[in-house]
Write a structure and sequence with these properties.
This protein has 339 residues and is of the alpha/beta class. It folds into two domains: 173 residues, Rossmann fold (3-Layer(aba) Sandwich), CATH 3.40.50; 143 residues, Rossmann fold (3-Layer(aba) Sandwich), CATH 3.40.50.1220. Helix content is 26%, strand content 24%. The strands form two sheets. The chain has a nine-stranded mixed sheet with strand order 7-6-5-8-4-1-2-3-9, sandwiched between helices. Helix 3 crosses helix 4 and helix 5 runs parallel beside helix 8. The structure holds flavin-adenine dinucleotide (FAD). Flavin-adenine dinucleotide binds next to helix 6, helix 7, strand 13 and helix 8.
Amino acid sequence: METLLVLAHVQDDGALSAADLETLGAAVGLAGALGAPLTVGLMGKAAQAAADSIATCGAQAFLAVEGEDFATARYATDVAAVEALARKSGATLVLAPATSRFARALPGAAVRLDGRIETHVCVLTPAEGTLRIQRWYYRQRMQATLDRAQRPWLLTLDRGVFAPWSGSPGTAALEKIEVAPPACRTQVVGYETPDADAQTIRPDAKLLFVAGAGWTRKQADGQTHVPEAEKLIRDFLDLTRASLGSSKSLVDQSSESGAVISFLSHFNQVGQTGATPRHPKGLATCCHGEEPHTVGWRFIGERRAVNLDANCGWAIGKADVLYVADAFQVMAKVNELLK
Ligand SMILES: Cc1cc2nc3c(=O)[nH]c(=O)nc-3n(C[C@H](O)[C@H](O)[C@H](O)COP(=O)(O)OP(=O)(O)OC[C@H]3O[C@@H](n4cnc5c(N)ncnc54)[C@H](O)[C@@H]3O)c2cc1C
């Protein structure tokens, strides 16, 4: 019979993140379907408050590796904590959110545990008392169904796929696991974060707003209007808190010395060689909707686009709604209505 361990990093404020709760939701569902016992494994400075917040999730045990050494992201301490929790729980299946922190530490833990790991898991299917998973390959073009005989099997679960666990708090009987901090060369001295307004990539936003290269092209009057485009996009983001995506052509212009939208970087790029974000809705503007771009939209629920060209890529089934219109005029009106 399988036994499950679900891992989470306690945040600085003592709470669990949205990604942690999604993975917990998936683990609770899987444990129920398999009839398997579930253990929660927490890592962080202090874990009791986080354990209490999920005390009624149905887990049989709550384990924690606590202390200043395990509060911040660092491979050596994270991998030691994961290894200790996995050994203590005796889990055959270990689930963690696909955060950068777990993505870095979990493969090392899998080696130490003589286990195997799958990353970016998006489907968990209980099958005959065990588990089959699904994940995408080749930029979401191929989906594979996998199972494995080797245990423990470690899995990182993609964000935005599983419903987050929700329930009432309680008092969890937290068992603390002592882990001697390994010798570390890396000292974490603090965080440097951009201003809230400078951060335009917002994975939790309900809307993805994509800006394409058309914003910097000559318009009907034969002129470019980049400052105006910047203001329209910035105002829309400020008013809606949407996440900003871009086409490759637009972000490439900075390295090609073209006119650029100043707050865009390659991190904003959506598509085959960019990101594949998950938002309930997406709005593409001045973007042609070519396949290498729209492949990054696979997980966007409802898709709309504004383009002057009625024959653009969005018109051939890539968008639910295409507005054949001037995006400068449309976004000016939208911003006016939003204010
Ligand atoms: C191997 C490979 C990988 C690639 N990976 C990616 C990727 O990851 N992501 C990506 O985006 N691309 C990728 N591309 C490039 C992709 O094929 C396209 O070239 C790119 O997406 C085009 O960007 P665009 O639509 O912004 O620009 P354009 O093709 O120049 O389109 C601009 C659009 O703006 C419209 N427009 C202009 N003015 C207005 C206006 N006032 N109102 C409304 N519409 C207006 C025009 O009608 C036009 O459709 C890749 C290509 C290759 C070969």
